[in-house]
Amino acid sequence: MAYRLAVFDMDGTILNTIDDLTDATNHALEACGYPTHTVDEVRFFVGNGIAKLIERATPAGTSEEEREKVRAEFMAYYRIHSADRTGPYDGVKDLLEKLRAAGVRTAVVSNKPDVAVRDLVVKYFDGLFDAAVGDMEGQRTKPAPDMCMKVFEGLGTGPEDAVYIGDSDTDIQTARNAGTDEILVSWGFRGREFLEEHGAKIICDTTDEVYDIIVGK
What we know:
DNA polymerase, domain 1, 8 strands, single chain, alpha/beta, Rossmann fold, 2 domains
């Protein structure tokens, strides 16, 4: 096989979370007296963690103290409503099952809060990942390689044997910072044209294409 470990981004790659992220963002903004945003606007706010999402969603010049209030509102809401309208993309569960049957280990690395990552993995992909790592205190978020390195250490795998699968420019940079090959998917939050503009080397339109690359077909 081509790779021993496949590391997946979560939002926009294995799960379509954009509606719940938009709802949580707009709930928090409304609660704090700020204008709300459309789904297509929020689509380009996500990818670098909740703090960056709130920074992008709040008006320019909003103080850090005010942004922290919005973030707290977001987190309180999202803990309860993270799976209201979320679901796996077509073919993803089959992809994971096929990879594991082929002897490829699987992991999730996401800038979502770690508790949300673990909850969503259990809800939608129970038993299909060997490791799942999200944003937590004292750990740099993507595109820093820290979370990938944590997975490599925990699973005893080097970056040369791994491939990172994502849907955004953040994921391109994460793979390169972690020293892994990269696969980008066109069905996520950014789309093929955006990924091409940001230097993606391999873009897949289907989960079958992703599988063939990972196992070396």
